[in-house]
Design goal:
The protein is α+β, with helices and mostly antiparallel strands and 414 residues long. Helices cover 16% and strands 32% of the residues.
């Protein structure tokens, strides 16, 4: 950079970002509770301490039976089974199913000894102390088996995952109250410029309101980073130096304005007193004067004063670098749509919209779960949703499909 002339050389965006990221290390590891773990980056693999469900349970309201007692049952040829009682959810059954017997059961209740299937209510008819079975069932039909959701010792969440609401649900189902995560960065925001005034002050003459600071603080909050506004610094080395000294108490610093080649653009000069300038001037429009430095593993971002350029520089450089402080690189963002080749057939019923949980991996789409409203782990093992519309009878293996990501796809740096 040559003051009042311009940038002799400009770094490519990718090269500048990689140079910055390579100089940063992850922050310390802390514990957070499952009630507030959303958005944190997991710092270790989580293994299941026991199976979920911990027992065989009914997957439908109906009657627990021995499947072999129902063979041959139909509406025209109902089979009569004697009622032996009922089982409520949350209680251990004190009933054992004997041949020719049935027990009323609700969804989620523990299966009684001797029972190996559930006949749905709609395929039964009460007849005094007996129940008529109108449709046969196979062994384990309408039963959620022990360990069907999560196996004991299984790695249910991997290091580097950005935790989602469904992850909190699975952790809670395993009795896990806290998990280890990388601490989220605390980011100080400074705006420079003699022309700026804060909200609430009068903007007489050639003064303008400080819009960059609230904009960037909210952009940080969008990603659940802590934003600390340090307000305005005039175009004075001493004032910028004082603000920067205060800012370096935090994990990262964002400064807007004063980064170009004019006589009052002194921010890079002051920043260089505190740390190493990694790059200054990038091949990007708007945003050419963007710069970054590192001081004691703390990134200092110097963004242009123009709001559009500042915001573009923020998303291009600040967000990836802050995630490096949590040891991950984001490959694809949550809620983005991706395309891929289906690796298995997905059936669906005409007139019903099917929400298929799938795993999207490098352009391939693997079906994880088509049904199973109680299998929460399917939302952890999958990372995307494939919607089969009501007017379509599923997809065939090899079809190209569009999916919606249910979580950020990340890479761990170590």
């Amino acid at each position: 950079m040559i003051r009042e002339v311009g940038f002799r050389e400009r770094e490519s965006v990718n090269s500048a970002l990689e140079k910055l990221i390579s100089r940063l290390k992850a922050l310390d590891i802390v514990e957070v509770g499952v009630y507030s773990c959303y958005g944190h980056v997991l710092a270790e693999d989580v293994k299941a301490p026991f199976e979920v469900p911990p027992f065989d349970r009914a997957a439908m309201d109906g009657y627990a039976v021995r499947a072999e007692d129902t063979f041959g049952a139909s509406i025209s040829n109902p089979i009569l089974l004697e009622l032996s009682g009922s089982v409520e959810i949350g209680e251990v059954p004190n009933i054992s199913i004997e041949p020719g017997k049935a027990v009323k059961i609700v969804t989620g209740a523990m299966m009684p000894a001797g029972a190996n299937a559930v006949v749905m209510l709609e395929y039964t008819r009460l007849n005094g102390n007996f129940v008529e079975i109108l449709k046969s069932v196979t062994p384990m039909k309408n039963v959620s088996r022990k360990g069907e959701d999560v196996k004991h010792g299984e790695v249910i969440l991997k290091k580097g995952e950005i935790l989602q609401p469904q992850d909190a649900g699975v952790l809670a189902s395993l009795g896990i109250e806290k998990v280890k995560v990388y601490r989220r960065p605390r980011v100080a925001v400074i705006t420079t410029g003699n022309e700026l005034v804060e909200l609430g002050e009068r903007s007489d003459g050639a003064k303008i309101y400080n819009s960059n600071n609230p904009m960037l603080c909210n952009a940080l909050l969008e990603h659940r980073f802590e934003a600390i506004s340090l307000g305005i610094a005039r175009d004075s080395k001493n004032e910028i130096r004082e603000k920067l000294e205060s800012a370096l108490k935090y994990d990262a610093v964002v400064i807007t304005g004063g980064t170009s080649v004019g006589p009052k653009d002194v921010v890079p000069e002051v920043v260089s007193e505190f740390g190493e300038i990694v790059f200054h001037g990038v091949s990007m429009k708007p945003g050419m004067p963007t710069a970054a430095a590192v001081a004691e593993n703390k990134p200092i971002f110097m963004l242009p004063g123009s709001p559009a350029a500042a915001l573009l520089g923020f998303y291009t450089f600040v967000i990836p670098a802050l995630y490096k402080l949590m040891n991950v690189r984001i490959v694809a963002r949550k809620w983005s749509r991706q395309r891929g080749i289906l690796q298995g057939r997905v059936p669906s019923e005409i007139g019903v919209r099917s929400n298929v949980r799938v795993l999207w991996d490098d352009g391939k789409v693997y079906p994880i779960r088509i049904s199973g409203s109680g299998i929460l782990s399917s939302f952890v093992r999958s990372n995307a949703l494939l919607i089969v519309p009501e007017d379509r009878e599923g997809y065939e293996e090899g079809d190209e499909v569009e999916i919606t990501l249910l979580r950020d796809i990340t890479e761990v740096f170590e």
